Amino acid sequence: MLLHIDELGKTEIYKIISQSVIPRPIAWIVTEEEGIVNIAPFSYFIPLSSEPATLLVSVGHKSDGTPKDTLANLRKHGKCVVCMVEKNHLEAMHYTSKPLGHEESEAETFGIQTERIEAEYPPMVADTPVAFFCSLMQEVPIGGSTVPLVLRVHTIHIADRVLSDAERLSIAYDPVARVGKAYALCGATIDPPHIS
After folding, report:
1. Within a domain: residue 117?
2. What is the pLDDT of residues 138-149, one digit of tens each?
3. 77 within some domain
4. Residue-wise pLDDT tens digits, 121-141
């Protein structure tokens, strides 16, 4: 089967890409507007570079065409905290994908504990294994309904419980990922083949 993008609808394209490029780690992105903490999950999310330390996330729009709260808050304040999601977050993370009003906080609505550890940033999810404190570096104009955002990482928080070797900065946890319409745990590892 050979499919030409210009002959497919947006939903068809999304289905193919989201079921083929797998697994995609899920990150909660925390932003804030006038004390209202917004926590939204994103699976169109990847590391972009280590130098400069950057992440890339694609943010869509609401069904009425207005920017999602994450995008609006980042455009206004330029700061966010990217929190990695693990198995114990699965239910709360799934609920946070439900659209809420701009004046509603996912933290309050779904009982998600947050913790402010960097004064100039929004709070992070309290028990996240890894959190990246970021500023909006740039939007990438590609047209269409999503806006790719390059986030510059300034500070990284790693929970002591996931450091398997602090000296080598070895991190071990079971991140939740998106696989098509389902979720998956990505903690299983396979040793690389030996190259002589």
Report:
1. yes
2. 999 888 788 999
3. yes
4. 999 999 999 999 999 999 998
